[in-house]
Write a structure and sequence with these properties.
The chain is mostly helical. The chain folds into two domains: about 160 residues, Tetracycline Repressor, domain 2 (Orthogonal Bundle), CATH 1.10.357.140; about 130 residues, Four Helix Bundle (Hemerythrin (Met), subunit A), CATH 1.20.120. Helices cover about 80% and strands about 0% of the residues. It contains 15 helices and no strands. Helix 3 runs antiparallel to helix 6, helix 3 runs parallel beside helix 7 and helix 10 packs across helix 11. The N and C termini lie far apart (about 45 Å).
């Protein structure tokens, strides 16, 4: 049952969003949050992201059933049956996350947490995914709001570093997801979802990914000029360099195997940036 719930809530994505929020909290100058406030921030981001992930699966059963990658999701297999009770459960998760943030943290943090869930569940899932290849570009802003929530929990008046990290998440999402979309091209074609590789082909998409990643890595370096030190810079350059290398391989050979390597390299790049920022503050700040 836990495996099914974890799949429904997309907990792996939720954990990444939670970590981005906590990293932004650490690098934002201002008050030090109490242990309770840190726990509430982590809880609020995790359950709100989970509610958006669950709604995504509730809404997309028809698409998920056509894709090899998603055929084992619980609503597709029948392990969970669609009913209004699931909608209520999803809404309660969102309310729990947003309300706890508003009550313990502040209204700005709660607003950003809500917007993150709203962008993924409504803007991306309902409005854009079936209509345009820009779906992941605009809908990908959901990840940026997790960063802003973590920063706002410390200081609603944003400083440059968390704003730049939010931009990193914004540009990271297309490179991350389009790499996966190249690897799973046939899945999206079968489901009729206009992901970029389906629209313009894998090889041209790989070129677009490289261009986007170059912008991403350039932005990821900028916090060095706003207070972070050589430790962060080394982490950002190392993770970014590795991601660019995998993008280059994907340009030469946009096969599913190489595209998955690019996809996993995107996770490495993000972790290097976030962990580098946290260690920079704790060890050298």
């Amino acid at each position: 049952m836990f495996k099914q719930i974890s799949s429904l809530l997309k907990l792996r994505i939720g954990v990444i969003m939670m970590f981005t929020a906590l990293a932004a909290m650490v690098v934002t100058p201002g008050q030090t949050l109490s242990g309770l406030e840190v726990l509430v921030l982590a809880f609020a981001v995790l359950v709100s992201a989970g509610s958006a992930g669950a709604f995504n699966q509730y809404f997309e059963v028809d698409l998920d059933s056509l894709m090899q990658r998603t055929r084992n999701r619980p609503f597709v297999t029948g392990r969970f049956h669609k009913s209004p009770l699931w909608v209520l459960f999803i809404l309660l998760l969102l309310v729990a996350g947003v309300a706890s943030a508003a009550f313990v943290l502040n209204g700005f943090a709660a607003l950003y947490i809500f917007l993150g869930a709203f962008f993924y569940a409504v803007i991306y899932t309902v409005w854009l995914k079936r209509r345009t290849w820009m779906n992941i570009v605009i809908g990908g802003a959901a990840g940026s709001f997790a960063v802003l929530a973590g920063a706002a929990a410390v200081d609603p008046a944003m400083s440059p570093v968390p704003i730049l990290l939010a931009l990193v998440l914004f540009f990271w999402t297309p490179s991350h997801f389009w790499s996966l979309a190249i690897a799973k091209h046939q899945d999206y074609a079968n489901a009729g979802v206009p992901m970029l590789p389906v629209v313009i082909g894998d090889r041209r998409t790989a070129v677009v990914v490289m261009g986007n990643t170059l912008i991403l890595v350039s932005i990821s370096i900028l916090p060095f000029f706003y207070g972070l030190s050589w430790l962060y810079l080394a982490a950002a350059l190392s993770g970014g360099g590795y991601f660019i290398y995998r993008n280059y391989q994907m340009m030469l050979d946009p096969s599913p195997k190489i595209a998955m390597k690019s996809f996993f390299a995107s996770l490495v790049q993000l972790m290097f940036v976030l962990i580098g920022a946290v260690l920079d503050v704790y060890l050298l700040g």
